[in-house]
Design a protein that fits this description.
Elements (H helix, E strand, L loop, with lengths): L18 H13 L5 H15 L10 H30 L11 E10 L4 H7 L7 H13 L2 H9 L3 E9 L4 E9 L4 H8 L8 E4 L6 H9 L3 E6 L4 E4 L10 E4 L2 H5 L5 E9 L5 E6 L9 H10 L2 H12 L10 H27 L10 H13 L11 H6 L29 E4 L2 H16 L5
Parallel strand pairs: 1-4, 4-5, 6-10
Antiparallel strand pairs: 1-2, 2-3, 5-9, 7-8, 8-9
Helix pairs in contact: 1-2, 1-12, 3-12, 5-6
């Protein structure tokens, strides 16, 4: 199965599932379009029995299936992720780099789960309430006051999903999950080691901060990040040789600790709404990363938003179906693994034929998978083999007027991030920067 190593994964001797059949069943469960999770499992189990007729039939209980899946999802996810990444390197060489860089976009989104008590306790932002607070909340709900409705609306249980997405291929690379009030930057740091050294990581205005950026740069990764009014930058600090666009991130707290300022290059580009977008990077060499390349790479970052749209709308995962928090997390992980597996299969085939990733229809690929699932007992009709259906899973090239939703996901109107706060360094800051530079030179730490 795509070279997946199952070493270290062994079930009990009396278990009717094997690691291979469990993985296949979980992917089929994710690919199915049946309305309920139990119906999806029923379909997946029938296909497993047909495919592995020589093996004992796996247990027919959905509860048993989801229990063993909860137990083994994380090691299986790690094994599949490793195999999928290796497969991407081997088969997607034509789209591996973007503007001469290995680029990953990072962004977060929330996925709804059913409003059950256990889901609220695990995934709601206000899950840690005292007994008195819970009693007051229940009383307020009974009165149906406006405040109660607003509180309930704010307390919707959601899973926070942060994804690292390979920009060249348009496929996932890694992800982290947590309650709806999780930290995107914390998730980013947990995924940092999965990106190869020297990668360029691009993100929006939520992924900022002196300590956070230092962590990324110390890990031998590069940054291309949009900055807004939540970032204070300095110019003419004199720490590095002055050039066009040179700015520094050196908050007062870092200066007092006599830490090095971060030397950055800022470029202003325009987005699709013709609003200015402020980008900063640690790559100072314009031959390696020109202003035009910075703009092109950041525009491609928008593809991760489209991928989230595929997940939530096309793949129908805007709201999960599991009432148990452990099951909901398993449902989300296998949904993402299922999308990744489909995308890797279709992209490996079509990119080899000269098709660009952005020309591939996710809905068409999913249909190509669902048809054999529905007709698994009979041979395909002429022209309806999965490979043939995938070859036709291409987006309509016709250009429509005023159809921005054709290429971009619908989003709520968000307030612009605005420009960063850019100030000229004071005499005291320039003096302190020179002192810090001399101190670091004596320690042999100056670049």
């Amino acid at each position: 199965m795509m070279g997946v190593s199952m070493s270290g994964i062994a079930f009990r001797a009396e278990c009717t599932w094997t690691p291979e059949t469990l993985v296949f069943a979980a992917l089929l469960w994710a690919w199915s379009d049946e309305k309920t999770l139990i119906e999806r499992f029923t379909v997946a189990r029938k296909i497993i029995i047909n495919r592995y007729a020589e093996q004992p039939e796996p247990a027919g209980s959905y509860q048993a299936f989801i229990k063993i899946l909860c137990r083994w999802t994380e090691p299986l996810r790690q094994a599949l992720s490793t195999a999928f990444r290796q497969r991407m390197v081997q088969t997607l060489a034509a789209v591996w780099m973007v503007e001469g860089w290995l680029v990953f976009a990072v962004d977060g989104s929330r996925v709804d789960v059913p409003r059950t008590r256990k889901n609220e306790e695990r995934y709601s932002p206000k899950s840690k309430l005292s007994r008195k607070a819970q009693k007051r909340r229940r009383a307020a709900k009974r009165r149906r006051t406006r405040q109660a409705m607003l509180e309930r609306r704010a307390n919707v249980p959601r899973i926070w999903l942060t994804m690292m997405w390979h920009v060249g291929s348009g496929l996932p690379w890694d992800w982290q999950t947590g309650p709806s009030d999780s930290s995107e930057r914390g998730h980013f740091q947990e995924m940092l080691d999965s990106a190869p050294a020297g990668s360029l990581l691009t993100a929006d205005a939520g992924f900022v901060g002196y300590d956070f950026w230092n962590t990324v740069l110390d890990a031998d990764r590069h940054l291309l990040v949009r900055v807004g009014s939540n970032v204070k930058l300095l110019k003419q600090l004199g720490y590095a040789r002055e050039s066009e666009g040179l700015v520094y991130l050196w908050p007062d707290r870092a200066a007092k600790r006599r830490l090095l300022p971060l030397v950055l290059r800022m470029v202003v580009v325009t987005n699709v709404d013709r609003e200015p977008v402020y980008l900063v990077t640690d790559v100072m060499n314009k031959r390696k990363l020109s202003d035009a390349k910075m703009a092109a790479i950041y525009r491609k970052r928008w593809g991760i938003e489209v991928y989230y749209r595929h997940c939530k709308q096309t793949f129908d995962r805007r709201k999960l179906r599991s009432h148990n928090p452990d099951n909901a997390m398993v449902e989300l992980h296998w949904s993402l693994l299922g999308m990744w597996a489909m995308g890797l299969h279709s992209h490996s085939r079509l990119v080899g034929q000269g098709v660009l990733p952005e020309q591939i229809s996710f809905a068409g690929v999913w249909r190509a998978y669902r048809r054999p699932m529905r007709e698994y007992k009979s041979p395909p009709d002429p022209g309806e083999r999965m490979s043939q259906l995938i070859d036709r899973a291409l987006l309509d090239p016709y250009k429509r007027r005023n159809k921005t939703s054709r290429d971009y996901p619908l989003k709520k109107q968000e307030k612009s991030a605005g420009p960063p706060i850019l100030r000229k360094a004071t005499h005291a800051q320039v003096k302190l920067a020179k002192q810090v530079k001399r101190e670091q030179a004596r320690k042999g730490l100056t670049a």
